[in-house]
Design a protein that fits this description.
Blueprint (H helix, E strand, L loop, with lengths): L2 H10 L1 E2 L1 H17 L10 E5 L5 H12 L2 E6 L5 H5 L1 E5 L4 E5 L12 E6 L6 H13 L1 E2 L3 E2 L4 E7 L13 H4 L3 E5 L3 H9 L5 H9 L20 H13 L5 H12 L1 H15 L4 H6 L11 H15 L5 H15 L4 H12 L4 H12 L4 H15 L2 H4 L1
Parallel strand pairs: 1-10, 2-9, 2-10, 3-6, 6-9
Antiparallel strand pairs: 4-5, 7-8
């Protein structure tokens, strides 16, 4: 790909994960309101580097809406898996086609047909997909039900991933967007997705580490991406009672040596705040706010992670009290960061519940007197609600 083409892709149709989710939501809503519009709605093709979350965002919106997610990896199938197989009809002396059972058939069903790895598959597969993508049908054999949106995704040829130049005929059938990693979107997702507080705090402290494909990276091994950090989070949960040395080796193998070294140092710092819950739930405990920025990030991510995990209403109330006690000792930037993170949830109803609990809390007035200016500067209610 030429520098000129790359510049166009990188600057004119770039979307964040939050914007991609919004685009998909709008298309799904439109399909439900006006099913006849599905015939003129252009399928979406999401370009992006490996690990930025192309497939996970599509899967997530299907889970959130409780609709079907049909994941088809085009690089792993044959043309017959799309078009079907010819079967002889000996009575009439003709060939009939049996269509792949993967494609949905319920006329009232709703979902997304996700054609992943479209830039990694053979040209013969791309050709087989022409009619499905453009006409939402396969000859006279099969018609895509009106409740199903077609979305495709593929890696960029510039990212040293498995990718081939797409046929211009197929490319012209899509509406193209370029998905880029976005730290703000990732934080909001991470705070409400059981991502280990050490991972959240580390990316908050060093946001450039969320995604890194620098020249020095060995891309044939582990390297930092939203996908690999989610796996590091899983490792931290799984090996929390095991040897740090074993965890260290697995982290290095997931995000690479450079990012691994820096993360494990932060992980060690995060472990220093293992008693955060005791501080939150004991009103007589002494609060000592660390001076170093990395330790403040560890403190904030730890208490936000624990805040809504109380076993009952009484426990949740105690955690809320402790949350505000700690926040009132923090600098305003970190206190507003903690409050905004504590409100976030993937579910809008839960977001409103959390906001209600936090903003009507008796200690919120004191918090506002201390940190109100920083909150006003950072708060965008439209993005929260």
């Amino acid at each position: 790909m030429s520098t000129k083409n790359k510049s166009i892709i990188d600057t004119h149709n770039v979307v964040t994960p939050a914007e991609l989710y919004q685009i998909l939501s709008m298309q799904l809503d439109r399909m439900q309101e006006c099913p006849e519009d599905v015939k003129i709605m252009a399928p979406l093709l999401v370009h992006g580097s490996p690990g930025v979350g192309k497939s996970s965002i599509v899967r997530q919106i299907c889970e959130d809406r409780n609709i079907e997610f049909i994941d088809t990896r085009l690089a792993q199938i044959e043309p017959a898996d799309i078009r079907g197989l010819p079967v002889p009809n000996r009575d009439e002396h003709i060939m009939e086609w049996y269509v792949n059972g993967t494609w949905p058939r319920d006329p009232k069903g709703r979902g997304i047909i996700f054609l992943d790895e479209i830039t990694s598959c053979d040209r013969s597969i791309q050709c087989a997909a022409y009619e499905l993508v453009l006409d939402r049908r396969l000859g006279s054999l099969y018609q895509v039900p009106p409740g199903y949106l077609i979305v495709a995704a593929g890696n960029n040829t510039t990212d040293r991933a498995v990718a081939v130049t797409m046929s211009s005929a197929l490319a012209n059938r899509f509406m193209h967007v370029e998905l880029k990693e976005d730290v703000e979107s990732w934080w909001k997702w991470a705070y409400s997705s059981n991502i280990h507080p050490a991972v959240v705090g580390f990316i908050k402290f060093k946001p450039h580490m969320l995604f890194c494909m620098d020249e020095g990276q060995n891309l044939e091994r582990g390297w930092p991406s939203p996908r690999s950090w989610e796996r590091v989070s899983q490792l931290c949960h799984m090996y929390k009672d095991k040897s740090d040395e074993l965890l260290r080796k697995l982290v290095y193998g997931t995000v690479g040596n450079g990012a691994g070294v820096e993360f494990m140092e932060f992980y060690r710092i995060n472990a220093e705040f293992a008693n955060i819950l005791d501080i939150m739930t004991d009103p007589n405990s002494k609060i000592v706010v660390p001076k170093q920025a990395d330790r403040k990030h560890a403190l904030v991510s730890g208490m936000v992670y624990l805040l809504w995990r109380g076993k009952d209403e009484k426990d949740e109330k105690a955690r809320l009290n402790g949350f505000y006690r700690i926040c009132c000792e923090l600098e305003s930037d970190f206190a507003s960061m903690a409050l905004l993170a504590a409100i976030q949830s993937k579910d809008k109803a839960e977001t409103k519940r959390r906001a209600g609990k936090l903003l009507v809390h008796p200690m919120f007035k004191k918090w506002k007197d201390l940190h109100g200016a920083a909150l006003t500067k950072n708060l965008d209610l439209s993005k929260i609600f």
